Amino acid sequence: MSRLVVVSNRTADPRNTAAGGLAVAVRESLQQTGGLWFGWSGKVAEEGSEDRGAARTNEPHLQTVGNVTLATLDLSQEDHETYYLGYANAVLWPVFHYRLDLANFDARFAAGYRRVNQLFARKLLPLLRPNDTIWVHDYHLIPLAAELRAMGCRNRIGFFLHIPMPPPLIMAAIPEHGWLTRCLFAYDLVGFQSEADVMHFSHHVESEAWAQTLSRDCIRAFDRTLRIGAYPIGIDVDDFIRLAEADEAREMFSRIRDEYSRRRLLLGVDRLDYSKGLPQRVHAFRELLERYPETRNLATLIQIAAPSREDVDAYGELRRHMDSLCGAINGDHGELDWMPVRYIHRNIARRRLPGLYRASHVALITPLRDGMNLVAKEFIAAQDPADPGMLVLSRFAGAAEQLKEALLVNPYDTHGTAQAIHHALTMPLDERINRHKALLDRIRKFDVLWWSSSFLRALHEVERDDVEVASDALCPSYQ
Ligand code: GDG
Fold first, then answer.
1. Is the N end or the C end of the chain the one with fewer CB atoms within 10 Å?
2. For residue 53, is pLDDT > 50?
3. Which is nearest to 210 in space by CA: 163, 178, 242, 243?
4. End-to-end distance of the chain based on CA atoms, in angstroms?
5. pTM score above 0.90
6. In 3D, which of 404, 434, 453, 471 has the Cα closest to residue 194?
7. Of residues 6, 46, 48, 13, the one with CA closest to residue 29
8. With left for phi above 0 and alpha for psi between -120 and 50, is residue 152 left, alpha or beta?
9. How much is the mean pLDDT over the chain?
10. HSE-up of 198 (CA within 13 Å, CB side)?
């Protein structure tokens, strides 16, 4: 049996619980099989990530945790700024979430991105065994397979994009889009969150690289045949239900239900990120209070916004904007005994989240664009099937392709979203039960194990032509 090697920007101690969808999902799938998890340590070293003499060689730190070996590298200040803050989070993240207005196409960023991908490839290569299956995750590492191939690596390599694939003309705004696309063809399988993402990718390579679509899941360009497909990521439903039944979640549930016994609770849980539609959500909540006076003194929005990427400029602005919007709504509508919005800019312990989900009558998951959104699935898993809360979900989250029984909204439409929140708050019990049952069945069927096993099965089934794998047509160079 081949060993699984996972590569992602950050790794996480599999025993710890982290905020962030990728870390949770990868940890859960890697724990099933064991293997190696390679990535950035999260540390920025003074002396840099490039090798500069034996004394300062930046070799991976190795640590064994249960059946998983973690191998992590430090980054230099320059690499952190250009690769991580720059290309990954000020080019790829905004553009892939359709925010060209927030992108900063500084040429230094692209160079840093390529340099760190080369570094990862160089440091990973000696740790690989011939039979290993390599699974690379997310937008930080698009060129990794091309770099590995250029160094002679012939292993099976799959790539999964956790964030949305933008439509062709948005992708085309990235000056290096041709290079990025070519790099993706160095993988054996590229997986996306949704059918919409697969369609965007196919259209992009058809129009930009004269690719030939051979079948629904096979596309040919750059003398390579690439397998593609939608593998919507899921959660470990039973594990989450267990977490919901544990002491800490129960205690959280009772505390919140007691504290808000006279209220109807609306809940948002997100990283503080401009893709999550937080200001638009607060506007929709304000509209609810203004259009439906019976909700005043009754509906309370708890918004958890876990701190995220605080050293990227756009995030500081969002933080200030949210502070002022929440302050204004509480000032304008609050009463001595009722605060409309509880805005918490802090991380909440994962063990307590299910209690909070279960105590809420409605979840507001209204990103402007999202690869999938695992909070939507966690909310469903945490509900009491006999009296479940209702999910209001953005049609622009990847999860909307699967979760049709939620109330789907356009988060840009303030009035429509307020109406949907009102509908959720007033929905009869039998309808809530029926919708919840359908949603729970679906997230159980397509859980995190289904996600990783179906992706890895497809990766193992790819028919490979060794001559093509060795082809140096893929050797990365810009454009
Ligand atoms: C990316 C894509 C895709 C949130 N706040 C706290 C906390 N969380 C946990 C949630 C959930 C995870 O973080 C967030 O996952 P999401 O899927 O919502 O979002 P991203 O972090 O943006 O993840 C996304 C995902 O990758 C997986 O492919 O779904 O579309 O953007 O598990 O529970 N956890 C803790 N405290 C918090 O305050 N402990």
1. N
2. no
3. 178
4. 38
5. yes
6. 404
7. 6
8. left
9. 92
10. 21
